[in-house]
Amino acid sequence: MGIKIVSTGSFLPDRVLTNFDLEKMVETSDEWITARTGIRERRISEGETTSDLATEAAVRALEGRDPQEVDLIVVATATPDAFFPSTACKVQAKIENKRAIAFDISAACTGFIYALYVADSIMRTKEIDKALVIGAERFSKIMNWKDRTTCILFGDGAGAVLLKKEDNEGILGFDLGADGSYGDLLYVPSVGSNEEYPFYVRMKGNEVFKVAVRTMVESAKRVLDKSGILAEEVKLLIPHQANVRIINAVAERLGISEEKIFINLDRYGNTSAASIPIALDEAIKEGRLKKGDLVLLVAFGGGFTWGSCILRI
Ligand code: COA
Q: Is residue 109 among the annotated active site residues?
């Protein structure tokens, strides 16, 4: 018995915010943003809530299947519609499923890998056949649009996968971890803290950059080692889409060549927990992945958290 991703879906809001638009909002330039990050534009919600984005991605991943078949819904998000009910419960209501276990996971940009790990673990030990695992974010609501060091980086969107128990193994291994001592380098305060509203993304970008590269490389190496897979056997590396310089540094240290890296951050920026499932969906739809191919997912995020997953399509 194994757990397999049987279908994927993603949804991006229509509104495009380009680097040129940002030039009119803060002191920056398309040239600076492109050179330092690789990002050219991002999508911004025009009123769609995080659960709306998540639901659209989930419906696409269901590909016409009966939503009642879903036993478990896990949503990774740092920008939920509400403190409660969870975004997963809102998605459940919107797809009119009345029985699944539903809850959210908070692990910032690593959230999707954490959610995949939790769903995979529950499915292996319990009577659960199908699970929706979703990454969905509306970071535009927690941006300080006057802070040029952060507002150029993030965007809104959602991606989803449908997991199913199958005879053949799909998900082959995980490596996850966290080091909370780095918490102050990248965070968004909330009501439990003594910080004053409004609650925006705070980040020491330079320091985050260095730890991100090191941590993603170490995690990816561990998951390959544990699974007995060589980097050269990997058909596609799907890294968290934060910064093209981080991605290239990680790939180089892993010995993975450029044509095996999936990048879409030029169009969407950093969509946090949504970035990997959106990228996975696009990679499959663009024909960059075929049945049997090995894929390496690697993420890093606030916490700090990190996570890698190796899977066979
Ligand atoms: N436009 C123009 N100039 C900018 C700018 C912007 N949007 N943002 C910062 N600058 C300036 C800085 O003020 C600084 O000026 P100074 O040299 O006069 O002090 C200069 O550009 C260099 O800033 P620095 O922060 O050293 O640049 P950098 O090369 O580290 O790039 C980031 C900044 C944020 C792009 C980069 O650090 C990064 O991507 N870090 C990781 C962030 C991340 O991915 N977070 C999410 C993780 S999941």
A: yes
267, 39 in Cβ contact below 8 A? no
Architecture of the domain delimited by 2-166: 3-Layer(aba) Sandwich (3.40)
Q: Report, as an integer, the average pLDDT of 188-209.
A: 95
Do the domains 171-312 and 2-166 match in fold? yes
Cα of 206 from ligand 1 centre, angstroms: 7
Give the residue among 161, 139, 163 at the shortest CA–CA distance from 152.
139
166-195, pLDDT tens digit by residue? 988 999 999 999 999 999 999 999 999 999
* Segments making up each domain of the chain, as ranges: 2-166, 171-312
pTM score, whole prediction: 0.97
- Dist. CA 60 → ligand 1 center (Å): 36
Query: Does ligand 1 lie within 6 Å of residue 237's CB atom?
Result: no
Phi, psi (rounded to 5 degrees) for 270: -90, 110
The 10s digit of each residue's pLDDT in 69-125 is 999 999 999 999 999 999 999 999 999 999 999 999 999 999 999 999 999 999 999
Superfamily of domain 171-312: Thiolase/Chalcone synthase (3.40.47.10)
Q: Are 82 and 306 in contact (CB under 8 A)?
A: no
